[in-house]
Amino acid sequence: METKSTARIVAGRYEIVKPLGNGKMSAVFLARDLRHKNDSVAVKILGNSNTFLSASQNQRACEKCGKLEHDPAARFCSYCGGSIVFTDPPGLDHDALRNEVFRRERDALSRLDHPNIVQIQEHGWCKDEGAPYIVLEYLDHTLLEEINTHTDPLDNAWCWPLMRLLTDALVQAHSANVIHCDIKPTNILMTKDSLPKLADFGISRLKHELTVGMTVSTFWSSGYASPEQQQGGPIDERSDIFALGAVFYHMLSRRNPPPTGPTPVLIDSLKSHNIPVLILSSIKKMVSPNADDRQQSATDILQRFERAELSLIPLPTIHLVITRKACVSLCDEGFISDPTTENALLWL
Q: Quick count: other Cβ atoms within 10 Å of Cβ 295?
């Protein structure tokens, strides 16, 4: 007797393997692409009021610093002592908000094609689920998990290429007029080769949308959001630059930034961590509280990081073999000091 398969198939193609995450906006699943060699993919399906409402209504955070609170009995923030309040404003239309967040991620990723930005493979409407879906490339761990594997605070060589690649991804996003708005270690995925990919564009904005959608603008991540974003002010590319600087601080210090974000003074405390001056000064500028004091584009940061990487390439030791007469001539011209003690020269 044949048994009917109970496998859950999305859009007639993607067989669900297991859940990866279940948030207030959507659910993400590991799936197999049945039409393409059973490749692993991540399928994100929009939630609805019945499946996700309780999670969204119960989210609480500190009124003062914005730190999320997971203890249902807590009344005051363990970090700053501020009052714990519900994060959702009264009368919020959760379904409309989910649709808006889902649309933003779909539209942003459809505009972007970069090796360090997670790739959207397909999107559409699933009749069986009664909801839209997005199919993304599957990556199994985040930058936060990568950071936690590096325990020696003086071993930072692994950071330099990742910083340059992430900055290059941000250059690409901004050139496509996409502002990410939520850059943090858990929104950066890692490949098997330890290369980073910027992900989760759910609250991103296209530049022409920056004056609308204030409901979505109330979503930000404590410790990484810029001061202007935390205060509900206007944001632009420089807000992403601040967030990326906060991520770099986390990478180099192996510590979470404070809820209000890192400061230039905090970056100065990393001077003993074997960090090239060009990189340290760039990060210090990235986290300036005033947006006007930061780099005005990610391109400026990328150029400095590229110069810093070049300076880290070890140069070979060169021994110059010349005649005594040529050495005396070089000394007379001021190119070398005393020809009798010049260690770099071998006499013929």
A: 20
Q: Which CATH superfamily is domain 140-315 in?
A: Transferase(Phosphotransferase) domain 1 (1.10.510.10)
Q: Which CATH number does 1-138 carry?
A: 3.30.200.20
E strands present in the chain: 9-10, 14-22, 26-33, 39-46, 60-62, 68-69, 84-86, 120-126, 131-137, 141-142, 178-179, 188-190, 196-198, 205-206, 320-322, 345-347
- Which structure tokens are listed for 2? 């044949």
Asked whether 250 and 240 are in contact (CB, 8 A), the reply is no
Number of CB atoms found within 10 A of residue 55's CB: 14
Q: Active-site residue numbers?
A: 182
Closest among 116, 260, 252 to 188, alpha carbons compared: 116
The pTM for the full model equals: 0.73
Domain edges within the chain: 1-138, 140-315, 317-348
- Give tens-digit pLDDT for 91-150: 445 567 667 777 778 888 888 899 999 998 988 888 877 788 889 999 989 999 999 999
Please list, residue by residue across 132-147, b when 16 or more beta carbons sit within 10 angstroms of its beta carbon and e when fewer do.
bbbbbbbbeebbbebb
Question: For residue 131, which of 27, 41, 30 has the smallest C-alpha distance?
Answer: 27
